[in-house]
Design brief:
Blueprint: H1 3-9, E1 27-31, H2 47-52, H3 54-60, E2 64-67, H4 95-107, E3 111-116, H5 126-133, H6 139-142, E4 146-148, E5 170-172, E6 177-180, H7 195-210, E7 215-218, H8 235-240, H9 255-266, E8 274-277, H10 286-290, H11 310-327, E9 332-334, H12 343-346, H13 367-372, H14 388-403, E10 408-412, H15 433-437, H16 480-484, H17 490-501, E11 511-513, E12 520-524, E13 530-534, E14 540-541, E15 549-553, E16 562-563, E17 567-572
Parallel strand pairs: 1-2, 1-10, 2-3, 3-7, 7-8, 9-10
Antiparallel strand pairs: 4-6, 5-6, 11-12, 12-13, 13-17, 14-16, 15-17
The structure holds 1-deoxynojirimycin (NOJ).
Residues 77-78, 80, 117, 183, 219-220, 278, 338-339 line the site of 1-deoxynojirimycin.
Length: 573
Amino acid sequence: MTAEAALATSPHPAARRTDAEWWRQAAVYQIYPRSFADADGNGIGDLKGVADRVPYLRELGIDAVWLSPFYPSALADGGYDVDDYRDVDPKIGTLADFDAMAEALHAAGIKLIVDIVPNHTSDRHEWFKEALASPKGSPERDRYIFRDGLGPDGAQPPSDWTSGFGGPAWEPVGDGQWYHHFFAREQPDLNWRNPEVREDFLKTLRFWSDRGVDGFRVDVAHGLSKDLPEELPTQAELDAIPVDGNHPVWDRDDVHEIYAEWRQVFDEYDPPRIAVAEAWVASDRRPAYASPRGLGQAFNFDLLGARFDAAQFREIVAFNLELAARSGSSSTWVLSNHDVVRHATRYGLPPEPAEPREDGSLPAESDATQKTGTSWLLHRGREPELKAERGLRRARAATLFELALPGSAYIYQGEELGLHEVADIADEDRQDPTFFRSPGVSVGRDGCRVPLPWSAGGESLGFGGSAHIPQPEWFAEHSVEREDGDPDSTLSLYRRALALRGELRTEERLEWLETGDPQVLAFRRPNGWVNVTNFGEGPFPLPEPLRGEVLVGSVALEEEGTLPGEASVWLKA
Ligand code: NOJ
């Protein structure tokens, strides 16, 4: 069968997703709703915008949508500061809009996963308002983590702990007490030892499950359980405590008691609701989150930290397939999301130095960077170093490699258009608290959250009203309108690979093939298809066992069956 015929006869992925295990090898598309599509023209993407674009999503060929927070929020942290877990932000819609969107997705055979943010509420949540209005030691304060300040009048913070976004992790409330927030000050951490907190989240899980939601992405899943001693360690002491299940804050073994309760709720439904943990933990501790007795799946972020490098990619894949098998889950693969520099840009930048200097300038590359070679945040001044075309070429290859792997692939909105990170956002247009709290050293995550370009012209390139983060001119080149009919566009590449991917979802196995070149990886899937990825710069003449009909390629093969440098191809070898 030719590649065209394989495409034509392969049913839409939706047709294969009737069983409870649909998530194991799903392609999940992350929508950051405020930057996806703005139907009401107020400059902020909305749920109606998502519903209107269901035909686009269907054509893309994804199996599920993961919707980042859409709850009422002051947007101190892009919606991860939730005022009310059982409602929709009026700026982006209503519960009725949510239902209509869910229905439209389901009618197109696309599942819906929603983000749930249990580590912290926003400071506008009813509970937090009650906590502030209630005295020290009250049940209202016990839902959060309050501590007395140090010094005679409690004017000093309870410890020197710092927030993950920069600045202090304690905020005074004016009566000698302080509350803990690992993220922004608008995100007070919940006390998960409080039974009311636990009960209320079960209610929230049922609320959305009853509305037909298929699963949950669990924010900061490794942070909920905290066991803070009476005498708090210093930040340095805290950092020195091994994260082995008994750390006061991170990845405690008893966090899994929470997820065992959640599992009971998931299993009340048919098919059971699914969950995926966002847990930044040592890889050998990931299986506990992915256990079928717990959340069932966990993000594997290892590829996010890897360079475009054959040895790193191979090691990561082999290791994670083994880990997934150990947990009884399937592996997950992520190249981009709303928290990191887009992969087209990462692969076009030289490896990032470990830390910028005080003044924001960059020291020479350090050993640590040599190891990780990643660019989590685009520090100021790196833009001229970007080799944009090369980055995109590599990104297309990495994506084809990723989509051929067993397990589920999480795709971030805009990567299918080959978007780069937007580096030149004016300070006054920035929104990310990491920018304000660093302060200004890290440019933060807004560069991957710029509203999508749907058309090549018009106000906000078809996004809707005036975009809440301005789009650069070059976005037009990457618009859906431009890429739609172009067979060589990144959008066409994603569509084609995702349509074919259904054929690969047989078993969660792959067999590595010898290529004779350390820069070239090749593996065969159980249906016989082979992925060959050339991480090197030079061309790779495909040896006889790796020749065959090309199903999809990040670039065209050169004559005589030669795979160009920094390219990937799926073959029927
Ligand atoms: C992880 C989310 O992905 C990120 O965007 C957010 O800022 C933090 N958790 C805090 O909720």
